Amino acid sequence: MKLTAVVVAVLTLVVSMAFPTFALSWVLLTALAYAAYGVIRSASRKLDYLNDLPNAFRVALAAVGGYLIGAPLNFALPSSGILLFVLSIYLNDEYQRRALLAMTEGRRGGSVALLGIDGSGKSTHAARLEKWFLSRGYYCTLVPFHKYLFVERLTRKGGERAPGEGEHEGNPFRPLLSLADNILLNLITSLGIGLEGRVVIYDRYVWSTYVKYRSLGYPVEPLSALYMLPRPNLAFILDVPVTRSMEIIRGRGNHIRYASEVLKEEKEEYFKIAASRGYPVIDSTRSFEIVQDELERRLERVFPTRRSRRR
Fold first, then answer.
1. In this structure, are residues 132 and 289 in contact, taking their beta carbons and an 8 Å threshold?
2. How far apart are CA 164 and CA 306, in angstroms?
3. Which positions ≥6 away from 215 have C-beta within 8 Å?
4. Cα 234–chain centre separation
5. How much is the CA Rg of the chain, to the nearest whole Å?
6. Are residues 254 and 131 in the same domain?
7. For residues 6 and 10, what is the distance between their CA atoms, to the nearest angstrom?
8. Buried/exposed 219-228: b ≥16 CB within 10 Å, e otherwise
């Protein structure tokens, strides 16, 4: 089916560029033709048509994606087309059936993000929260911190000292590429999990990429609106002093050694996010169990009902 989506997208792109006036008709006819093919095949094999409906939806996404990729180059339309094309490949039929089942059962997904500087306990609390959600009858998935392609560059740039004012070495397109990396590999995947009726726990979030680049001196301010656009249902800022963060980092062996100035700037950015979005700042210097209890109490207000899990 992935090959079919690719072929449909390429053919639609060719048609939209060679015969632009016929492009929209081609998209509509392609989607209808594949839907009709599914009906005929289901009838002949005495199968439920819903088994082929997800594939028809993927073809429609691929066709629209191919059309938008060939649209006049104003960034928004072609980039939207690429996103739809990626979705047509990613959204396999089995996933769509699970999402449909979640809707019919009334299972609503949600998302929680844990943010903060290194050593604040994000990963440990995220793992415990996953068990907490499961124990309460929720479907739950933990999305761990993504190991970005630019991490080696960040090590060289931030390891010795904080960048000086106006110092922007390296690839100027790196923040934009990282944003695309975050959205395609993290948010799309997590959105899909959410549509399945699962609760998604983010160990860090797309915002973490923005905060890291800003603290390292990259010119990411023009991209702030894009980085800050996605929102989880709830986010927590786990706060620890920079001195404690540095101590924990030193004990991790091969961990990236950021300068204290970088971590201070990160803290300031996280506080700004908390203030602008109304997210709570949690004192993570307390014992693990006390912090965990506070997280669970706050989550109960957003996810108040116990639901039975059906297989």
1. no
2. 51
3. 158, 162, 262, 263, 265, 266, 269
4. 14
5. 23
6. yes
7. 6
8. ebeebeebbe
Locate 270 and state its tokens.
Answer: 């996280």
Instruction: Report residue 64 as tokens.
Output: 């629209």
C-alpha distances (whole Å) from 10 to each of 72, 92, 255 are: 17, 19, 44
Residue 183 DSSP one-character state: I
Q: Among the three residues 58, 91, 124, which one is the final residue of a domain in this structure?
A: 91
Residue 262 near residue 245 (C-beta atoms within 8 A): no
**Contacts with 176 (C-beta within 8 Å, 6 or more apart), sequence order:** 223
Residue-wise pLDDT for 149-199, tens only, equals 444 444 444 444 434 434 445 556 666 677 667 766 666 666 666 666 778
Structural domain includes residue 32: yes
Note whether 166 and 223 are same-domain residues: yes
Domain containing 220 equals: 108-302
Burial of 126 (0-12, 13-18, 19+ CB in 10 A): buried
**3-class SS at 165?**
coil
pLDDT at position 2 over 70: no
Q: Tell whether 129 and 253 lie within a shared domain.
A: yes
DSSP-derived secondary structure for 14-44:
HHHHH-GGGHHHHHHHHHHHHHHHHHHHHHH
Count up the domains in the chain and report the number: 2
pTM: 0.62
Rounded CA gap, 66 and 85, in Å?
Answer: 7
pLDDT tens digits, residue range 251-296? Answer: 666 555 567 888 888 898 899 889 988 899 999 999 999 999 999 9
Distance of alpha carbon 243 from alpha carbon 309, whole angstroms: 43
Query: Are β-strands 234-239 and 110-115 bridged in parallel, bridged antiparallel, or unpaired?
Result: parallel
